[in-house]
Amino acid sequence: MSAPVSENPVLEARKVTMQFGGLKALSEFELDLRPRELVGMIGPNGAGKTTAFNAITGVYAPTSGDVLVSGERVNGQRPYAICKKGIARTFQNIRLFKDLTAIDNVRVACHHRRQAGFTAAFIRSAASLADERSITRRAEEYLAVMGLADRRDELARNLPYGEQRRLEIARALATGPKLLCLDEPAAGMNASEKVSLLELIRKIRDDFGLAILIIEHDMRVVMGVSERLVVLDHGIIISRGTPEKVRKDPKVIEAYLGDAYLAEKHISVPGEGA
Amino acid sequence: MGHLKLVFRSLLPFLLALPVLWAATAVLAHFEMWSFQYILMMAFIDVILAVSLNVVNGFTGQFSLGHAGFMAVGAYTAAKITVAMRGMDVLGLPPGVSDQVVFSAALVAGMLTAAGAGFLVGMPSLRLRGDYLAIVTLGFNEIIRVVIENTPFLGQATGISGLPRRTTLVWVGMGAVATLVMARRLVGSTHGRALLAIREDEVAAEAMGVDTTGYKVRAFVISAAFAGLAGGLLVHLIQLCTPRSFTFVKSIEVVVMVVLGGLGSVTGSVIAAFVLRFGVEALREAQQYRMVLYSMLLIVLMLTRPTGLFGTREIWDLLPRLRRRRAEGGAQ
Amino acid sequence: MTEFLQHLVNGLSVGTIYALIALGYTMVYGVLKLINFAHGDVYMVGAFSGLYLARGLGVDQSPSLFKALLVFVGSMLICAALGVIIERFAYRPLRHQPRLTALITAIGVSFLLEYGFQLPPMVQGGVPFPPGPTPRFFPEPFPRVDFEPFGVHVSNYDIVSLAVAIGLMFALQFVVYRTKFGTAMRAVSFDSGVAGLMGINVNRVISWTFALGSGLAAAAALLVAGSRPTINPLMGLLPGIKAFVAAVFGGIGNVPGAMVGGLVLGLAEEYVAGYALSSYRDGIAFAMLILVLLFRPAGLFGRVRAEKV
Question: Measured between CB atoms, does B182 come within 8 Å of chain A?
Fold first, then answer.
């Protein structure tokens, strides 16, 4: 279940820029992720965090710059190909397969590891039957890891919100990624659910040995779980570093609370004049 | 030995169906219920059409309005072959057997060309959104028809006549069984789940490693192939192959069957096909009112129960034992 | 040269008809995101309304400009009402359903009109109602006069038709871009939810959109019916599909686009059928459709809407 640990970065984003017509949603985005790292991406709304996710996972092709997965350039490849290379994600607004059961949701994520082809399914070959067994087994394991084993046959849309979020994570994990991208996994959760989620994220990283990149708004969650942070504002990285360093960075404070706050608190941003 | 067992289980539905169909043919012949047999055969052809369209519209959630076009491709291919080979004895076989061999080959050829047409239509079209895809498939349906009407080799508007009557209850029955087996095995497999995932949320499916375009094309191709089978069977029943049998109205009729039964429900498609076919026959007296009632049915259905008779449910979902077996991937 | 000009005249003639019908498709798609399959059949109802009105007013025996005007306006009003009724009872209840459902309902309405008009008569008369499948003669509102400027065949019907069609298109352009209603209509087409929050009565805007589009379709039908000998219940099928293609070509939802699309299709049909393969005339529209959707699905003036992930 663990990915092989190596020193090569799982993900390298080099000067990735996303331009939509006149709007530069992401500007010269740089990020490296090594195996087993836990990195958080924060920033005000509209800062470009999900755009960065989309550029990394292939939903958008970068206007310029490069995205490399385990050293291989994946620019412009389709999301499904990038998923096979080892990047999985969850979505800001939950995108489960609503009319499918929990186990079917996870089974879809196991699909790309199948052995038997399309036509083999019709003749019920030994290979296709073996595929079914192994896919089901794998899906059950991942449901159990996320504590959803007893929800196996429930339709995804009937699950309570917190379980839906966990199911989305189980599904992403089942693709067998090297890097898991979580887009606001704690959104809509209450305080105790968030605490459980934090522990779960750490546990996933430890048990599966993968790198995790997490977008979050809740400062306690992201500061509590991240080893380092990247701060985006208006598509530009304005700060990086450990949580302690970033939370004190005036540029970050300004981005979230505005320059009036800075003036009131007599904090100056270095390099911009007081 | 395990291998042989697998092959046997794979062919089981066909081995069971064949004697049943033979017996049914004998019974109907004994009671000389020719018109009932004819309607039954048409109903089975409708089943093939509805279930095959359901693969695209129901399982994959795409909106194809051009099913009759693929029927036409399969029908004309099969017709050309049987007409060309008429009277010839293949491989020195006795006439009865030779005819069946030619017919089988014709049907298979029809399925292959229809599949090819499905590929040609599907490849460029499947990146289009919902209603646009509907219009493009409709457009292709009409283009196929216009091309046929302008091609002397295909008999133009008058079509090809003098087709031998090869379609029997056994043939259409086996065709329907093949279609049902295809659908059932598809939906119970990981490939079928990939199609359902595309229907549910294409972006998420793609993010989870499903080649959505590739799978949409596959669904299209498989669906077109079986439409071609239905086309081949149909023209060898009515012994005539004209473009008028394959207009956009025919495509709509198949869509109605699928929607009435429930998009995504194979059971629903089967039942709807029978209900509509026998219903149409019952209204034979009121022929002129048939289409008006049909259209009112459509409107009322959409306003009151758009999910159709069965929604996405299947009869096998009602049997918990079978359901558990399905969940385990049909093993043991 | 005369051939070229002849095709030009014919192409513009038929193109303006396509444009008038296409406007109905494009406006409805703009506000409802629905392809109104029944629109071509509303066109057909326009022609028959004209027929019944004309017979009622005795246009056959004593044609006059005044009566022609009455027939024209009367049919437009009847079709406008029909459009509003269809929207109210068949489409509005499905406003929040997946679009597939409304599309199928639209197909149902289309069939209902087509086959309903082909039923055996229930109300007797010179022309019974329903009229049945046999084609009916449409009375000439004014005597036909042919001219031949530069060797090109033009009739007074062509000139009137062109003038009326262009006039109506200018009028619509004015309504859509210079009136409060037009702004409301465009607002609803961008985002009906927000438009509603801004105080626009979305239902009323949609009803009026249907009324406008259907009225224009009726006008198109009358312009055609006046110069063609017969009308029949299936006359809306082909022009409907072609006008739809024209709307998609111009960018469905875009009003000037529909006008341009109609003219382009009309001219394309004339020139391709005239110089090349005349039996493929009807296929040209479909070929154009496929080409547009494959290479520029948003159409000439359409906006590409990206989905937010």
Answer: yes
